[in-house]
Protein 1
Amino acid sequence: MIGHLWLIGIGTGSLAHLTFEGRDALRKAAVILLPQKGPGKDDLAGIRTRLIRDSGSTARLVRFDYPERDPALPYQIRVSAWHDEIARRWQAALAERPPEGPVALLVWGDPSLYDSTMRIAARLDPAPVLRVVPGITAIQALTAAHAIPLNTVNGPVEITTGRRLRDHGWPAGAETLVVMLDGEAGFQHLDQDGFDIWWGAFLGMPEQITEHGRLRDVSTRIVERRAAARAEHGWIMDTYLLRRLPDGVPAV
């Protein structure tokens, strides 16, 4: 049984992204659950363990194997079954030696933005007392890397996924679009002359790479750099911002 569960946002890879509140939570946690995501993803585990070490935490570390999603299932059913299995693995990992204080999980980015850790926590029975410690988001890291504001003056911003961009195209009325969780470079399906793009991967890490320009000029280069980086590291986390160009107005 998990009495208190703390979800700590750790940013997008920079050890400096951990907030003072997050550092304090790591020091006060009794147990920290650490996912093992398989070969080729040692960087992710390494960042988590360095954050824990540098925070001065003395928490007991409990590792669990992260499950794979079943590609044969329809998308919504696949994700739901995956979340169920993750919750079971949390509880199984703690069953042999129940925690004697708060259990913490380090969440990449921020627990509230396109992350399902809170949804997984809701599957626990009995339900724990949940604490969420906010973190630097991929969107903040992206705009900082490019030194740009997220929005235009008085302009709206929409946040979506690569899946929705591919399936539904550019949202009606959108001016600025941030795309997350895009494993297939959905921007390739847009009008290549009509948009500017700001793209980044491994944001905040020493491996950080970025591209910016008119979509027609950088689309192919982004796809190529993305594939090469994924082959080199065994994984990639990237996001991008798209801005529609008004008719007759050049990119800024």
Protein 2
Amino acid sequence: MNILLTGTAGFIGARTAELLLDDGHQVVGVDNLNDYYDLRVKEHRLDRLVSRPNFRFVHTDLEDRDAVHALFKGASHDAVVNLAARAGVRASIEDPHAYVATNASGTLNLLESMVCNGVGKLVIASTSSLYAGQPMPFDESAVVTRPISPYAASKLAAESLCYVWHHLHGLDVTILRYFTVYGPGGRPDMAPFRFCEWIRRGEPITLHGDGNQTRDFTYIDDIARGTVAALRPVGYEIINLGGGNDPISINEMIRELGGHFGRVPVVNHAPAVSADMQDTSANISKAARLLDWKPRIPWQDGFRMTAAWHAEQGAWLDDIVM
């Protein structure tokens, strides 16, 4: 297949691109290379892709309607995988306009271009943050109408737009609600990356809240596999990709990572953030049924491999701003 993959320099986008190329697909990778976090991390991921056969990179922004239309002109995309997003709950409180512009308006630009150019399949990343206030484990049948952060609100808007375009134009859409993705080469704004670096550098960890909050951590390779599997036709479906209802506390994660570095982490507590969810846990039975997918990497192995990557890459990670 010929795949248009947005957010290709991102954590999930880069690994998904690698798997698509491994499977023999052609990938046009799109990213605006914004400075939400240290660009050297994005460049590190992109360097692994640009020399590969069947990969072409386009530096452009989904918020630019004309630029998005140009991505389709003269092309023969079989599907779009939209992983471009402004991510991060706390940052969305500081700059909500950027989140709506990328996550909602950027999605709308893609939907319009797909219809105009006869591209019928969309896979799009969404978030477990939409489940705030719902009983666990979180199930896709939950009615989510009260997001508690601008990030979640912008993702709910994108999901709604996708349903409208499915209803009006017959687009086949798979919406993937990801649960706390982590692994080698992660995002510097996320706890697993930051905690690994603080422990490796011998610096204290800043932890918001008491650390008893839990997360359904999902290893990057499992997420990328599920994203590729989501290219199959489904009509319109929302599907959880999570760790398999095996959540652990943030305190337990810190202890686990400290053990891999041979250190007892020093933790400085900061006030909890009201837009953060207390706990997450995914019902992933729908992913098993529709995508033949389940996670393969338990969190114990995942954190070991994540810590090992940080130890191996320390020479250039020392300068990364978090």
Protein 3
Amino acid sequence: MFLILQDFLGQAFCTLGEIVGSAGSRLEKPLTMGTVTMHPRGRRPTPAASNGGILGKKCGTIILLAEELGNCRDVATLQFCANKLDKKDFFGKSDPFMVFYRSNEDGTFTICHKTEVVRNTLNPVWAAFAIPVRALCNGDHDRAIKVEVYDWDRDGSHDFIGEFTTSYRELARGQSHFNVYEVVNPRKKMKKKKYLNSGTVTLLSFTVEAEHTFLDYIRGGTQLNFTVAIDFTASNGNPSQPTSLHYLSPFQLNAYSLALRAVGDIIQDYDSDKMFPALGFGAKVPPDGHVSHEFPLNGDASNPACCGIAGVLEAYQRSLRRVQLYGPTNFAPVVNHVARSAAMVLDGSQYFVLLIITDGVISDMAQTKEAIVNAAKLPMSIIIVGVGQAEFDAMVELDGDDIRISSRGKVAERDIVQFVPFRDYMSGGPGAGLSMAGLAREVLAEIPDQLLSYMKARGIKPTPIPPMSSETPPP
């Protein structure tokens, strides 16, 4: 029996977001010495908090790199036409369409695309369509792709014209004699000895390009700028009372603090300077007691940025002690505040995220809709977290997942609002941590697609990452 001992060199802690959010997705962290104990089964040493080490001692540097797997990020654009398809309609020709199937590992097929119907023709030309390569062949360029051709019927009993098989590798050859396919109906072929085919389908064009991802932009240098806006209206209740949503308990965080920390702890990794503007709205502020809907939590109107999420939480708690909760609940001022900053940086180098935490119904719905419609043209997203037990119908309306919001006859160019009710993720007890992770996931789920929609609409491509030097850094 041999016992192999290994020397413990040091340890470092980080999140994946820290690595990805670093320049070039390259993060350097100092290794520090922790104390070391043997693995319970004696296989290898592990750091532990016991006597025998010099805590905090620097032991060199570790370099961490993150790479997004690029397999099957390509999107193929294809166009087909057909010639001399079978006539299926008694009083006309045919109304043909095609159905594409991806083959699975078990030999079954899964529908991955349907073309549009071209009416009353035996020689259709279908519109070009784009499809992710992973959807077409699951990354296997030689996997069979089955294509069925039908004649559309109003009652849904579409008549089968025929089928053919191909592969991504074949399609990638583009327009050529390799991509002219006989459409064969197996039943007709069995019945008729002289049967050749039910027409032909020809690939007219094939192009493929890489689909840019959220991480492409982050790694290319796009910075997320995170702004917080907190509801200080009187409907939250007296902050000195435990029933208030703003109550500062010495034992646990209130709903506002929990929501802020859940979202902020994740998004701050993508913000290089870790400075977050923090605003309040709906309160009377000193020294003259006027009602403000975009006052700085740190008291500095010229620079409302706070250092890290901890700095935002500290400024929020200080504000609770110096302002008077009032009203009404107006969103438009904080939306326009961030929009003014976003309007100054339209080149894709920065993207702005506004987190609004609120407890109630919006008082300036018309103005807020107008502000959001205008902001939809900018590199900007809005997250609304609703705390408390109020009805949030207005918030759901602003979240344009089902119906894109409009104002003065103008429809928002993009859906930029995500609303999440905080109560859906608060279970308390041992499961609270898991609930908070779920809240963070839900709140941030739409940011990547919203950022991509802005970049794509403006034709902005991510900045290529310079190749890493092969030289080993000096010790």
Protein 4
Amino acid sequence: MRQDADTAPATAVTGDSGATGRIAGLDGLRGLAALIVVFYHCSLLARPFLDPEAWTVLTRTPMKLLLAGTESVLVFFVLSGLVVALPALREGFSWIRYYPARLLRLYLPVFGALLFAAALILLIPRDPATMPEGSWMRDAQATTITPGSLLSEASLLRASYDIDNVLWSLRWELFFSLLLPLFVWIALRSRHHSLVVAALAVAATITGRLVESDALVYLPVFLLGTVMAVNLDALRTYAARPAVRRVVPYAGVAAALLLIGTWLARWVLPDGSIGDRALWGSAGLAAAVLVAIAAVWAPAARMLETRPMLWLGRISFSLYLVHVPIIGTVGYLLGVEHWWLACLIAVPLSLLVAAVFYRSVELPSHRLSRAAGDLCRRLARRPAPTADGGAAAVATRSASR
């Protein structure tokens, strides 16, 4: 089924590959990344109660790949840059249709997730004093709801979010969606110098980490995906070369390690040091390489196109939106002494609720966004009545009397 940019999932989106159809492997990658984000937030619930040595093993070894939550968001951003841009590169793409449909596609599931989170907070009281001081549960989970806080987070214009933590990334999805024409223009104008643009984008993300500018960190990651969209056919041709096929698995392993490189290097680079932040900035490049491999390398696609992975990909946006309110609620409900049970319950419960949310909220938002976009396009195409046309209509009505 073809999927336009304005109806594609807002986070870690998937879509067409131009004339060749849907890139199913990206669905699986999106689902895997969403599940890793769930594991990451469960680890934040567990962290105050874990032995420091156990935490070190989880975060300073390749096991961190299972808990690479923030890094997975970078994968989402590259995916969005790729597949939201792909339809815009096709002949006949309508910007008039794109904007209303895309904004509805972003905001409607967000509204639904916030109402869901608010209901949980109101139904199950939360006392932050029961949680360890300085913990994620105490400092990053809303314990009360006001209409103002709900509307503020629903705007997607805040820098931080307590009702549903993950909405911080949707803020950058919103900015990218609004700026898509600029991203596409840059990628097309620089098509013959795409490697230079990609290198500049990576340099920008590293600089963003060094100067602590979120815009510099995240927006260039979307650009990497857009550049990939413009050069997708060339990437496929390049990946088909026998010499390249032999190297791709090693490139994938290197990219996966670079994605969590800042954690692996903590043994020698202190947290917050210049080297640490520069390595952290390089995670955007790693995310782009992983997305490229999933898009053009057949063995990776086969692994990512299994039924469980595709199912995860289908519900991934819903899973991303609902899992944090569930983890927080279960954590408060069971109490700190049962943190391990909260994690065991929260993961399957999040998958179940995500499946329901997908059917009841996300799919209807697809239909409504498509309808809104089609309506705007039809209205834009309708010719305005002219003076002669108006006079002819009056004459016709007079003659009929």
